Amino acid sequence: MTSTADAPAARPGPASRLPSLTGLRWIAALLVFGFHAGTMRIIAEPDYKAVVDALFTLGLSGVQFFFILSGFVLVWSARPGDRRRTFWRRRVAKIYPNHLVLWVAALLVAWWFADPVLPAVALENLLLVQAWDPRPGWFYSVNTVSWSLSCEFFFYLCLPLALPLLRRSRPALLWTLIVALPLLILALWPAQQLVPEASRWWFTQIFPPVRSLEFWLGAVAAELMRRGLWRGPGLTAASAIFVATWVVAAQWIRAELWTTLLAVAYLLVITAAADADVRGRRSPWRSRPLVWLGEVSFAFYLVHVLVMTSVLRLTGDWGTGFGGWRGPAAVLGFLLANLVLAGLLHRFVETPMMRRLAPRRRAHPSVVPRPRTAGATSADESSEQAGNRWVGGADRAEGRSTYADSR
């Protein structure tokens, strides 16, 4: 899910925060939760289960939303002068403490139920490299949802190396990428025929370079918006497009198509919500309760599967579910219990460890930059690259200032 884990970074100025994107993170986490609640067959009553299936049949795409959002937020919030190692250290501080706690908890659960866990499997998961291993018992190991963190770590490794190129890219190339990346996602489905059948799910759903297409889609859109070049529908229209896409895809569209369609729909909602925040327009996604839910969504995503499977196994309802009204009640109970645990994890692990481990951001003056002319170069670029800084030196002010000024 941060992944499922990247909240917009706080910065001075009216456009420094994108709280609507934080609120939307909770909606994505809820989609994933609903999907797992359906696939775990918590609800035994067919009529009740049909409702959950209808609402959340595409809920797995919530991870797709997290990946797109992650690329968008990290490019939007990139600061001039940030060093690569500083960025990597900040990302590890954000992701790893929660992962470590859930890794230990999952191993304790496995010990309680006498589930065998190979040391090599546990080590892969601990180091977050399991998504590179096509064996089913390996990439879905220990805390199963942590495969997405393995993908995110790959994205984090690549971004500081690619961002200077992204900053220097011509608008025509960026728009070409906006069109090409969804088409590449679509092309993965025929391309999987080149992969052994047993590894096709891993190839399309888990393999980090493949899933990075969604991350780069968000990154390119953020760069276009940062320059004031993004053109997309407003938040109301984008939300309507998403709802329509979701309904149509759930009923009539094959998986080969809906993954691409939803990637585009998610991108439109993300950019529209960011635009609403930048321009100070109304947005239903930045209310205080939704922002808090978005802040704990990463922890929620990490705990929800482990909690539900453990309880179902303890009660003996694993694979059978709860009959009658107890099924929907159990789903609601799981939602609340996971939310409480996520709040505790966010409050006592994620937040204090970020403060302790992450390097402090240096204060930057709020300066509106002079728009960069086509073909312009700066001697600062080479000097900053030599200094191992990963944001082009020509962008002296923060990216969002360029965007806000140009609008």
Name the features:
Acyltransferase; 407 residues; acyltransferase; mainly alpha; acyltransferase activity; 67% helix
Brief overview, please?
This is Acyltransferase. This protein has 407 residues and is mainly α.
Chain-wise SSE layout:
Blueprint: H1 19-39, H2 46-56, H3 62-76, H4 84-112, H5 119-126, H6 136-139, H7 147-168, H8 171-191, H9 200-205, H10 208-226, H11 235-252, H12 255-279, H13 288-295, H14 297-315, H15 326-357, H16 379-386, H17 399-406
Helix pairs in contact: 1-2, 1-3, 1-12, 1-13, 1-14, 3-7, 3-10, 3-12, 4-7, 4-14, 4-15, 7-10, 8-10, 8-12, 10-12, 11-12, 14-15
Region (Disordered): 360-407
GO molecular function: acyltransferase activity
Keywords: Acyltransferase, Membrane, Transferase, Transmembrane, Transmembrane helix
Estimate the helix proportion, in percent.
55-70%
Task: Tell me the number of structural domains.
Answer: 1
Report the total helices: 17
Percentage of β-strand residues: under 5%
Amino- and carboxy-terminal Cα gap: 32 Å
Given as residue ranges, the uncertain stretches (5+ residues, pLDDT < 50) are 1-15, 364-407
